[in-house]
Amino acid sequence: MNFAAGKVIRPIHTMNKDALIYVAGHRGLVGSAICRTLQRHGFENLITRTHRELDLTKQADVSDFFQQEQPEYVFLAAAKVGGIHANNTYPADFIRDNLLVQLNVIDSARRSGTKKLLFLGSSCIYPKYASQPMAESSLLTGELEPTNEWYAVAKIAGIKQCQAYRRQYGFNAISLMPTNLYGPGDNFDLDNAHVLPALIRKFHEAKESGADKVMVWGTGKPKREFLYVDDLAEASLFLMENYEEEEIVNVGTGEDISIAELAENVKDIVGYDGTIEYDLTKPDGTPRKLLDTSKVNEIGWFPKCSFKIGLAQTYRWFLANQGTLRF
Ligand code: GDP
Known about the structure:
Layout: E1 2-4, E2 7-9, E3 21-24, H1 29-40, E4 46-47, H2 59-69, E5 73-76, H3 84-89, H4 91-111, E6 116-120, H5 149-169, E7 173-178, E8 180-182, H6 195-209, E9 213-217, E10 223-224, E11 226-228, H7 229-242, E12 249-251, E13 257-258, H8 259-270, E14 275-279, H9 294-299, H10 307-320
Parallel strand pairs: 3-4, 3-5, 5-6, 6-7, 7-12, 8-11, 9-14
Antiparallel strand pairs: 1-2, 10-13
The structure holds guanosine-5'-diphosphate.
């Protein structure tokens, strides 16, 4: 049972606490948060595989894994992800790896009798100039943002695969579109990172070295919405138990800030007292991508973690994990 905004919600699909659950991508930002959240809710029968143990781009290996393990539930959080620079530089890797992973996992799950699968998409599936906030219905109504269209096209194919499998095979696959995520376990490698972890690292290193300025990419004007990853994990579990239709569902906070405001927030949390400069040779990407979250709110889910607290927790995690960070 779930309590949201004073309402008691009874799940339409209860997962038994001892159900076998496969979390694909359990070492990533999202997958690790989903594992933490499932365990916190008493689900102990989790199955995971590292990339070395199972390469999800290899169809025969994925098929064997599913036939052998027969997971009842699948959270598909495995994906090749990255910030604006990585997406722009490695378009082939982004479209190939994501298409292969999705195709293999969704198909093998269906063939091996998985009861329900949750596919994680992205807010970049929506058109570059979609009206804001972006409703689920704006999918495929306009041109995509060119810096990440390869990733976006792969994610759109994943959504369509889930919908097609539901129509043709009655396979219970649902798709969740998260906004920009951040939190413990993020990627702080400046070439691959998204803006929030990149700025944490840049401001922290500038403070440590006594540098007098930090370079922020682009104009600082684009706006982004940031959701703490544990909130996303709660939403994933919530939708697994409370939603089973083919239509995609947005998950976000419903609020966005400019990159310049984000930079000021990170500067404050880190305690850096130099100046901020904007590198206009770097791309801005899409001007705004705020999700319309009224659908998930109506179903009964709301985020819990405020941006200030989430940012402070992420910086604390960054400080405590200097030895093991993904740089
Ligand atoms: P996007 O949301 O797909 O555009 O991906 P990002 O999170 O990588 O970038 C969001 C915005 O932050 C873009 O306008 C970037 O130009 C801007 N940005 C500013 N500084 C940085 C930085 O150091 N790293 C990254 N990745 N983005 C930055």
